[in-house]
Amino acid sequence: MNTLDKFDIAILNELQTDARLTNAELAQRVGLSAAPCWRRVRALEEEGFIKGYRAEIDRNKIGLGVLAFVRLDADRSTGNLTREMEDAIAQIPEVVACHYISGTGTFELQVVARDLESFSQFARNVLLNLPNVKDMHTSFSLGEVKASGALPLTHLARPRG
Fold it and tell me: Residue 65 to residues 48, 114, 115, 116: CA-CA distances in angstroms?
């Protein structure tokens, strides 16, 4: 699968909106019969376009009312130390996203917590004790405007020139 055609793009769009669609429902929505639709979904999975399926859980409903954006600065940015820091961050369940960033700082984390007190304890006991941490800067979400995990796909349908 070298390129995505209009059916592949439609399948990706539909599954981003509702991954619980049956194959028959998906096929109808994208204008294919069931068997070719199923084969395309399997090919999209095998090629890594579809990485998995999961439920989107409301963090507030499960008592995680705080979302913090934490910038961690590394003491030294050598390959081994950075990888060690990455590995340690990847093991922390409260860190729901982590990006290696340009500019000021080394990593930008999204961290969830029950409340400010539990975040404060977590920051002192876990984040500041990660290997190679020099400094930490935190901002808190005051309200979510958009938190969709759906990616825009319109650029895939445009002719390339």
Answer: 33, 5, 6, 9
Q: Which residue has the tokens 């995990």?
A: 149
How far, in Å, CA of 16 to CA of 19, rounded? 6
Q: Tokens representing 27?
A: 């096929």
- pLDDT tens by residue, 15-61: 999 999 999 999 999 999 999 999 999 999 999 999 999 988 999 99
Q: Report how far residue 59's alpha carbon sits from residue 55's, in angstroms, rounded to the nearest whole number.
A: 12
Side by side, which strands form the sheet with 107-113?
95-100, 107-113, 66-74, 133-140
**What's the pTM?**
0.84
| Rounded CA separation 31/48 (Å) | 23
Distance of CA 102 to the CA centre of its chain: 18
Helix (H, G, I), strand (E, B) or coil at 71: strand
| Residue 10 in tokens | 């439609």
In the chain, the amino acid numbered 79 is G
Separation between Cα atoms, residue 57 and residue 151, nearest integer Å: 18
DSSP 152: P
